[in-house]
Write a structure and sequence with these properties.
single chain, 26% strand, elongated
Amino acid sequence: MTNVRLGGPIVAAVVVAVLAGAAPASAAFSPDAEGRNYSKIRERFQYESGTPEYQSMLRERGTQEDVALEMTRVKDPERNWTGNLCSSHQDGCAGDVRFYSWESDGFGIRRPLTFVARNGGVISGHLWYTRYGPAVRPAVVVTTGSVQAPEELYGFIATTLAKRGYVVLTYDVITQGRSDNRGEGADAGYYQTQAPDQFVDGTVDALDFMLSSPANPYRPRFPAQKADGTKLQQDHAPKQARRVAAGLSAAYNPASGMVDPTRVGIIGHSLGAYGVSRVAADDPRVKAVVAYDNLSVGGNSAFGPADPIPPRVPALGMSNDYGLTPTPYQSEPDVGGKNLASAAFSKAGVDSMQVNTRGGTHFEYSYIPNPGFPATLRGMDMAAWYTAAWLDRYVKGDPGAEARLLTTRWLNDGRAKEIDPDGDGNLLSSYYRSRIDVGRDGGRRVTCEDLRGGPAGCAALAPDGCRVSAYSYFAEAQTKDGAAPPETASCPSQASAGATPYVAWRFRLRVGLAAPRLASDASRSSTFPVSVSVRNSASASLVDAYELQVRVGRRWRTLRTGLGAPRVRFRGVDGRAYRFRARAVGRGGIPGPWTEARTVVPRDDRLRRVRGGRRLAVNPRFAGGWARRAARAAWRGSLTVSLRAGATMTFRFTGRRVYVVGRRSPAGGRARLALDGGRPHTVSLRGRTANRRVIAVLRAARGGRHTLRLDALGPRVAVDALGAD
């Protein structure tokens, strides 16, 4: 849980002594050593968020966010975040502003969205993912801490996981950030900002949204009740539908096509850690859980109901030397004080790990650029590392994750050593033991109760094999989308394994586009079929939607978009040529390449009358002996047939290519064709009866205005239509 007065010191928080409490004295305790350990809480602000460069960026982005907030208020006036401490992303409420432009900088996708919670409140959030990566990906929902904990504080883990091939949803719990501070209608009562049930309900609702899709749109739960047992009185699906229709909320997860619903993890901080601990115990969709300060098995009155929370899925707990209101120790705390939940998981036979940060605080896992919320410099990097490794192991199924969990890198971190008052590069707490109890591939088991001691006390610990010497979540996040991040690529069997590069994936999304060369090839009129198909049937599962467009003037106009491959009957105009293009849009909104096709709608052989009987210019012009013949199978239902040798036809067109459409028959005649008075070409219309056949295609050396001349060499030369492009 966190609390703030902007620009000032910490406001008194709710009583959660369990987060910072001390335990019986030990003869080994040293006040001087404790003073140096306690000094580490100032590292993040001293070396990073408090630098002039960062503070300047913080003020600039804060001003931009004020403008954005007002625009949102005007566009979506029914939302009500009044009273939420961090609706304005200023100062300590800003989170890590370096991630605000993560998408525009080309590092990945950060898509804002809203949806309606079970109580009718509007929930604000972001989806994080990359264009590069596997076609189908695991999903992770991140639930924030309380009060001073908008989703912007958790960009570090959202980007870390997105870069490693996950789809991540961060969101503001109701009454926090830019989510509403109330429900709707019969459920409109205001909600207490530190009510534990909101973090449980919020996690479940966010999971519902994450796993929604076009085939299964998101719907607020009803009948439903809050986690505290209070029954909700109203179905809020109509509000969700109304907002979707107005373009204010998402009907479903826009990256749903990427999400593998069988591989889902959840992360929570503070009260959010309690919330995800509860949900992981009950929700069969969840395969693993990570809890930042800290994993819970119930029985703690500071987090609401004391009911036990049974261990069910593998769980990583992370904690720190100091709690919500950091205070120096006067005596050595209980070495196992942070590990109670992890030990309970071990007793239940469920894999677990507990990592405790030396000199760390409750704010190691939430980026608050204000000195009133202190943290170490490297604690967030270590949290990102172990979180990704844990989820890779138990959600993604990456065989390389085991080595990263059993790494020795955090026992002698170079950057931590440089800034530590004692030159100690070991990031694991010297007060609280870090532990691991997990099964290994092959059926073996690793159980170590004190990871800080390294291989001497835990023989399974070893170098992880990753070539990166000083891991940085921020450096990983800043790699350009479209290539594997170096931190990922440098580790064996990591997230890049099995990934499909963006270019290769786009190629797999290539579609087929079927449109006739001439409309007369497929129809007797100017209405003809255009259809889209998937070239590789195995790629159909990658497609979320198809787009079909036609060029009108200088712009492309959409003819059809949707889930099914489009098939349309397009109505053109005689004498015009049309360009079509189509593509598939893959999972997560990634577009495939365009495929193009052209269709020429030919001009009929007949003259037409328009507006008051005024005749069009005569083109084509027939002379010297022709007759009009009705023919049901012909273009527009008629043909013009020569009666004798010497009959001529001229056709003026603009373009580079001209098509002559006619009718072949057993008694068909012959004709000579010439373009712009050039070399003549003789064609025969004798053969098996066939209507609307292209009997000749002539090409000019260059585009422009041209004249085609046809000379009949005898009777029965049947001209049906002429086209040009």
